[in-house]
Write a structure and sequence with these properties.
34 strands; alpha/beta; 864 residues; 6-stranded mixed beta barrel; 7-stranded mixed sheet
């Protein structure tokens, strides 16, 4: 019997435990771990299908200098020499690391130690800057330390759960299932989000506030609580420092009618929320990117924290503000000091902290001040101040705001190193050196999830090719730069124990972050480590990590929300899709995950579409002052008028459009340095095309087809490309492989259908039309797996009537819309549970349950 390996999911900050059973050379069976406190056996669609992403497709397996393979010794010596020479000529501030929440804590620790303690600059920042650094800044201002004062257990005890700027059903499905379970016990759910997301559809109350009006909303709530007499005066007097003019400033413009006007919501709905909050002491407020990714993100965080502090809803079961993170180890990075704004182990750059960390590391030079945050870091490359950059496990040419400019500065940087698992990424194209890193399934170390639970990530497979763990790569460069003794690590357990010792060194209770027991024992204890949460119940005693032990109420004021601009009248919001992850280097390999949202869509309100002459399913160009990209149009009343939404995932490897990173402004929150991805001035215009079609291949293309619109969709045994363009469509035929060709041409409709067979098996099929209809893709995709191609290939379907399952709604069990509608009608299904019993849809991660409820409502109302 194959051994079960307990590890942790590779995706979001929920930190789900996994039971993995290796079933082949690069094959694994994935199950949720029922004993893990974060998920109790549940997994979302992404975690469920992790087994589809562990192959070696596209992997970087050998060190590369330029376009040539090189030995590790030669490559590491080159990296060390170029960094050492750059520092000698231009000083420590001329080099930088840009790292990632995909790193394990041990990787993060070694990178941070090298940059801040030995190179002597804090120019190491992480892509976590883009998603949760405003929460870090808010926690530090209010609590004196970056501590999330909540756990998932608080959801089980809450009577009211407020979600602010979080589509939890899609982005944290396992957390959402915990919320849903609590609602069955009577808890209420309020969702505050400009979009009517799937999460909002399920809520008891949805407030579709104007983007950027969160401070007004929360100041109004605090003012309401004070007027209603529900502030915890005893708690405030004993444990919270309140600025002299705080209450006067909160009250200004915070009456119900003024707040409703600023937030653009109905006063009655606003009153309902305020009354519900005031009447419910056990309230958990979860907030995510909708709060953090704003130009006033830190103030928005502190507005939420102010309410919880003033009402005493913190440090108690079922009562807490709760920042939920987007990456698997964003929290671990925060703990070791992976952000440019912190030193290490929750310490800042105060002189006593610099002295303490330098003594602990016995380092020759310690960073004296915060380093360059992500946006400033890339700006500094363009200004010629950063001359050597090492990118680890992230893809800034796609994910950074104003990504077109990021590409320009990468192209001009004298020396760029990229450590990654993938050979070709948009960022790796600019690398002088590429280093093959270990992927999930090969890594060995720890991660920390959103509620401070530390879990082990364990290797399932041996390292392929010449790939190495990130900590090993970093320490080898450090040793070649001259610091052999300080980086003499042989295994991640040694790094972990050093990290634990630093967390307690000179701490004496000043910081809550202290891994007092985590480093106990030897290598065997590390190998058998079970999940544990540090910090207990934070602030339960009423003592905070400030010099006087008191929390701080922070005066924050709502900033004026700019009116729409004449040339850029729309407001662009960006975010995630349910079944995709970051830039799709992993999820893009999974055929199951590809089918829910196959193409990058721009979501538009139907009334805006009428004015702008946009059509559902057509193409449109979204433009901002920074750049433009093409998207498929999706009309939906879940959007507010005047606003657009686009997903963040598509890259130059997967589409000729959908490049959302090109669009946002490189403007940041003044406190956290986090970019404002949620409210970019934009415009949109339709694009006419002369033809459309699709290409299905057994295998992959090296690059997208050269036409106006080409988007890749992973399918079993190959790939599907959705196509559209102008001019001569026959150029696409050059992409077809060699083999026996079967063709059909309809000149009247401008339709051309070509199938290519290799030894009787389907190798490729291309359908193009100017005015005709195109068949659904599922049957043709299935032919890639058949030993002998069907004779009706050019018809696009099997003989006779064939059922069309429709768009995939449940990715976990591959259930389509038409199948769900038919089951509801034919079997008389009356609720979501009945749909699950009949089709399994919604019975795993539950992220499709809001969609199932909506479909059920529509079908039953039509029948009535």
């Amino acid at each position: 019997m194959n051994e079960v390996i307990r590890t942790t999911c590779a995706y979001c900050g929920v930190g789900c435990g996994i039971r993995a059973t290796v079933t082949g050379k690069r094959a694994v069976r994935i199950e949720g771990d029922p004993d893990h406190p974060a998920n109790r056996g549940r997994l979302c669609s992404k975690g469920t299908h992790l087994g589809e992403t562990v192959g070696l497709e596209g992997r970087l397996l050998h060190p590369m200098i330029g376009l040539k393979r090189a030995s590790w010794d030669k490559t590491l010596n080159l990296v060390a020499k170029r960094f050492r020479d750059t520092i000698a000529r231009h000083g420590p501030g001329s080099v930088a690391f840009y790292v990632s929440g995909q790193l394990l804590t041990e990787d993060y620790y070694v990178a941070n130690k090298l940059m801040k303690g030995f190179i002597g600059t804090a120019n190491i920042d992480t892509n976590s800057r883009l998603c949760m650094s405003s929460a870090v800044a808010g926690h530090n201002r209010a609590f004196g330390e970056d501590v999330v004062p909540a756990s998932y257990d608080d959801l089980d005890a809450a009577d009211l759960i407020v979600l602010v700027g979080s589509n939890t059903a899609w982005c944290h499905p396992v957390v959402y299932q915990r919320i849903a379970a609590r609602r069955e016990a009577g808890a209420k759910l309020v969702v505050i989000d400009p979009r009517r997301t799937e999460t909002a559809e399920e809520a008891d109350l949805h407030l579709p506030i104007r983007p950027g009006s969160d401070v007004a909303l929360m100041n109004g709530l605090l003012h309401w609580c004070r007027e209603a007499g529900v502030l915890d005066e005893a708690y405030l007097n004993a444990h919270v420092a309140t600025p002299k003019e705080f209450w006067d400033e909160v009250g200004e413009g915070s009456d119900l009618w003024s707040v409703a006007r600023v937030c653009d919501v109905s006063p009655s709905d606003l009153r309902r929320f305020y009354e519900l909050f005031a009447a419910t002491p056990r309230t958990v407020t979860l907030f995510s990117q909708g709060v953090n990714q704003a130009l006033a993100g830190t103030d928005q965080v502190n507005a939420i924290l102010n309410v919880h502090l003033a009402t005493g809803r913190i440090g108690k079961p079922g009562a807490a503000p709760f920042s939920i993170t987007g990456q698997p180890n964003a929290m671990g990075g925060r703990e070791v000091g992976g952000l440019a704004s912190t030193l290490a182990a929750h310490m800042d750059f105060a002189p006593e902290n610099r002295d303490l960390v330098q003594r602990f590391w016995a380092s020759p030079a310690i960073a004296q001040k915060p380093g360059l945050k992500a946006v400033d870091l890339f700006r500094s490359i363009g200004e010629g101040r950063i001359k050597a950059l090492w990118i680890m496990a992230t893809n800034p040419a796609v994910s950074m705001p104003d990504a077109g400019r990021v590409r320009e500065v990468l192209a001009g940087c004298p020396f760029v190193v990229v450590s990654d698992v993938i050979e070709r990424t948009d960022s790796a194209d600019y690398a002088h050196v590429r280093l093959p890193a270990a992927a999930w399934g090969e890594k060995d170390g720890t991660v920390t999830n959103s509620d401070r639970t530390i879990s082990r990530q364990r290797a399932l497979f041996p390292l392929p090719g010449e790939a190495k763990p990130d900590w090993w790569i970093i320490k080898e460069v450090a040793r070649r730069m001259g610091w052999k003794t300080a980086f003499a690590y042989d295994r991640p357990a040694e790094i972990w124990r050093e990290h634990c010792r630093l967390s307690t060194y000179g701490n004496d209770g000043k910081r809550l972050f202290a891994l007092t027991d985590g480093g106990a024992g030897g290598n065997a204890a590390y190998d058998t480590m079970t999940p544990f949460r540090w910090g207990g119940v934070p602030f339960a005693t009423g003592r905070f990590s400030t010099p006087d032990g008191r929390a701080r109420l922070i005066s924050v004021a709502q900033k004026p929300i700019p009116a729409p601009l004449r040339d850029w009248p729309m407001t662009l919001n960006t975010g995630r899709y349910r079944d995709q992850w970051h830039t799709m280097t992993r999820t893009g390999l999974s055929p199951k995950l590809a089918r829910h949202r196959e193409e990058p869509l721009v979501e538009v309100h139907p009334e805006d579409a009428v004015e702008l002459e946009l059509t559902d399913g057509g193409l449109a160009r979204v433009a901002t002052p920074q750049g433009d990209s093409i998207f498929r149009v999706a009309l939906t009343e879940t959007q507010r008028r005047g606003e657009l939404f686009t997903p963040i995932h598509w890259t130059d490897r997967t589409s000729t459009g959908g490049r959302t990173g090109l669009l946002p402004r490189p403007l940041t929150d003044p406190h956290s340095g986090q970019p404002g991805f949620k409210s970019t001035p934009a415009k949109i215009a339709p694009i006419a095309t002369e033809w459309r079609g699709f290409l299905i291949l057994s295998g992959e293309l090296a690059a997208p087809p050269r036409c106006l619109w080409a988007t890749r969709v992973a399918v079993p045994q190959g790939s599907l490309w959705e196509l559209a363009g102008n001019g001569d469509a026959t150029r696409i035929e050059a992409l077809l492989p060699r083999g026996e060709r079967v063709e059909a041409i309809d000149a009247a409709r401008g339709t051309r259908r070509i199938a290519v067979l290799a030894h009787g098996k389907l190798a490729a099929v291309l359908f193009v039309t100017r005015t005709g209809e195109l068949p659904t893709r599922d049957w043709l995709i299935a032919q890639l797996s058949e030993e002998h191609a069907a004779p009706t290939l050019l018809a696009g379907r099997a003989p006779g009537a064939q059922p069309d399952r429709g768009a995939v709604i449940c990715a976990c069990f591959d259930v389509g819309l038409n199948s769900i509608v038919a089951a509801i009608r034919d079997r008389g299904l009356a609720d979501v549970a009945a749909i699950g019993g009949a089709l399994q849809a919604g019975t795993n991660c539950g992220s499709c349950r809001p969609a199932l409820a909506r479909i059920l409502s529509e079908v039953t109302s039509d029948a009535a």
